[in-house]
């Protein structure tokens, strides 16, 4: 049995003719229909014909007839083009594959029309469910179309719906970053927070305060500074940091820490000899390549993506109230 595979796709009729059976028999075999009465000889001839001819079943038709598929959808606003947050896709993809599913990814760049089209396409393909993800942790309004299937919010949450969500534990992360500095013997620690309202802004501040409280150190609001969450913000705050007389600084993210490095260096201060610095995010293109390499706390994007798939498949439970919190691990290097 030879077929010209460079021409048209092999049809079920061709398989039936090659195996000497009916089209219905071929359909029952390739779709593994339960209860179908097919003799072992006929089944074997069909499987051999399928292999020889290179027949591929029509996945869409199979999905439509069964009402489900081995696809999981992931709709993202920008994470496919954001290097460190792209780990969400990596984690979801690995976890989906582990359980026999393939991840369909749509990167919408925040375009609502593209988002609607992507969700509609996934629903047409009868996906097992959809992960709806953002590239940074924030509140969203989940698209109405998601309610037509099972879905999980990933790195975001909807305050007005009980939809399951998976997000980083910002409070624990802030506590862990501050703890790195406390464990090194520092007691006068500044926190450079962002000016942008977000779960990260409030959560990391709460964690900073909790770590100080646990260590028996009184919280001093004068040691909390707010700057833009970019390198320029960290650079701009260096003079105030020196004036505060602190021995350590917890920065809202690694970009702020990078700017603070530059500012402190211009003031003649060395890290960590004069001032210890801890960041947040673990953007390796920054943290691992600063001199000295930056001690930081990682945003667990890979695990967030993997957990999203597990929750969708019912392999892991999400809390009845509030999102599932994923721990942010410490990444100690040489800046403390």
UniProtKB/TrEMBL annotation:
GO molecular function annotations of the record: DNA-binding transcription factor activity; transcription cis-regulatory region binding
Keywords linked to the UniProt accession: DNA-binding, Repressor, Transcription, Transcription regulation
Residue span(s) of domain HTH lacI-type: 10-66
KW Nucleotide-binding (keyword) present: no
InterPro entries: HTH_LacI, LacI/GalR-like_sensor, Lambda_DNA-bd_dom_sf, Peripla_BP_I
Stored Pfam families: LacI (PF00356), Peripla_BP_3 (PF13377)
Keyword DNA-binding included in the entry's annotation: yes
Domain of life: Bacteria
Protein name: Transcriptional regulator, LacI family
């Amino acid at each position: 049995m030879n077929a010209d595979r460079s021409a048209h796709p092999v049809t079920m009729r061709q398989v039936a003719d090659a195996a000497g059976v009916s089209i219905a028999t071929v359909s029952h075999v390739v779709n593994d229909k339960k209860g179908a009465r097919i003799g072992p000889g006929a089944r074997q001839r069909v499987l051999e014909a399928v292999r020889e001819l290179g027949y591929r079943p029509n996945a869409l038709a199979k999905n439509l007839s069964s009402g489900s598929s081995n696809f999981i959808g992931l709709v993202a606003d920008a994470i496919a083009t954001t290097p460190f947050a792209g780990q969400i896709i990596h984690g979801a993809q690995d976890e989906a594959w582990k359980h026999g599913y393939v991840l369909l990814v749509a990167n919408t760049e925040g375009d609502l029309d593209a988002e609607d089209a992507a969700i509609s396409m996934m629903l047409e393909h009868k996906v097992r469910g959809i992960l709806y993800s953002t590239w940074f942790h924030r509140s969203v309004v989940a698209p109405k179309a998601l309610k037509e299937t099972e879905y999980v919010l990933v790195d975001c949450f909807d305050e007005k719906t009980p939809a399951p969500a998976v997000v980083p534990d910002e409070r624990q992360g802030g506590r862990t970053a501050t703890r790195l500095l406390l464990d090194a013997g520092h007691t006068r620690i500044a926190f450079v927070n962002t000016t942008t309202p977000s779960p990260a802004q409030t959560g990391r501040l709460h964690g900073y305060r909790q770590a100080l409280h646990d260590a028996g150190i009184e919280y001093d609001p004068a040691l909390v500074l707010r700057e833009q969450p970019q390198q320029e913000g960290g650079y701009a705050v260096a003079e105030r940091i020196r004036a505060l007389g602190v021995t350590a600084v917890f920065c809202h993210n690694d970009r702020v820490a990078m700017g603070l490095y530059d500012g402190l260096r211009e003031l003649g201060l060395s890290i960590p000899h004069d001032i210890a610095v801890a960041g947040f995010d673990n953007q390796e293109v920054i943290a691992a390549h600063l001199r000295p390499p930056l001690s930081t706390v990682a945003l667990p994007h890979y695990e967030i993506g993997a957990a999203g798939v597990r929750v969708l498949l019912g392999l892991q439970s999400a809390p009845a109230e509030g999102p599932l919190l994923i721990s942010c691990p410490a990444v100690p290097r040489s800046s403390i």
